[in-house]
């Protein structure tokens, strides 16, 4: 394995045996030679290299094999087949409380875990005050960890994991149960670890965290690598797949919906860009209009067939200054019965982090009823009007989604990622991502007098 590679996996697979009953397991033990089990392959032929100093984000639905992969890298599981090489000390924060003995006190578990990671008692003792200070669990350090809340568990586990000088840090969703203040402290520690050249494997369902924290992303489904590469792109593909899976369930549960074979033109021209047809699925049998070079997902029972970004003067706009009035017009066409139409817009940065979002339901709960009553032959044009925020100068994208249902529960009819872009301009330096408006500073002389 090269000097620049921290983790190397070659053709890693993991198989578990599943038994219909405890009796089948016993039969296999007492009567060797005949299998009474079914094979379940949690991972299949995974090959992967993680460079030193790289932060790899791993995404995928529950049961996809993410945790199994991390446990194999951490050394707590042995692969069925394949070869694994890891350079350096690995510190893993996996399932909540894994590696902790519930009967031991917090102090005892600190020493126990430190020794497992290869530190001497003297080395752990030298770090103990730092670990205890970061964990902030006070006198509970001398209590059995079985008395800890989930948040206290995470505090101590993360404090041990980050303070034992690891070269590879593995974090598996555990921070989700921490309180807001502690999560911010953890993220600051992780940033410090990255700056020091540490290698991180980070599992999360929060694609915003994956996009901002990671230098590379990996999407696993059913034990297979589906996609890998730049986090914004991988997360975008994963988001689309999730919506498609949700829509499949809607289709199965909605047998009353009828197929529509109406023909539509091969291409149309709109204000922003040229769009061409793409077959969506076999549900509506309708050619699906897709924005060139962009991705979209949905059942196709209704679609977004026009988008334009305008200024206050109703002229096309591509460059926005803080305070500018921006109008985003969305043209929709309904092919089939839609119970509760709901259009939403999300403003995202180049890392696919959602900065803000609006929807017709959030703005007006009765908007859907008005929509259905005033729709002209299935076509409706909706206009969102916003005041452009004081963002740092950069290019921002707009996602547009058309759903049937509420924001919490819906069928995704059409969702276009990066439907259009807006260039943000500013005449002032913006520290961070956004500059708050109406910020003031003054000397509180009256307070000095009263004190």
Structure notes:
- By secondary structure, this protein is of the alpha+beta class.
- It has two domains: 5-232, P-loop containing nucleotide triphosphate hydrolases (Rossmann fold), CATH 3.40.50.300; 254-424, Coagulation Factor XIII, Chain A, domain 1 (Distorted Sandwich), CATH 2.70.50.
- Helix content is 27%, strand content 34%.
- It has helices spanning 22-30, 66-74, 106-116, 121-135, 150-162, 180-195, 207-213, 231-253, 360-363, 367-374, 445-450, and strands spanning 5-19, 37-51, 55-59, 81-86, 90-93, 168-172, 199-203, 216-221, 224-229, 267-269, 274-279, 287-291, 295-297, 302-310, 319-320, 325-334, 341-348, 354-359, 379-387, 394-405, 410-424.
- The strands form five sheets. The chain has a six-stranded mixed beta sheet with strand order 5-6-7-3-8-9, sandwiched between helices.
- A hairpin with a 4-residue loop joins strand 20 (394-405) and strand 21 (410-424).
- Helix 3 (106-116) crosses helix 4 (121-135).
- The protein is globular, with a radius of gyration of 27 Å.
- The protein starts with a strand and ends with a helix.
- Residues 255-293 have low confidence and may be disordered.
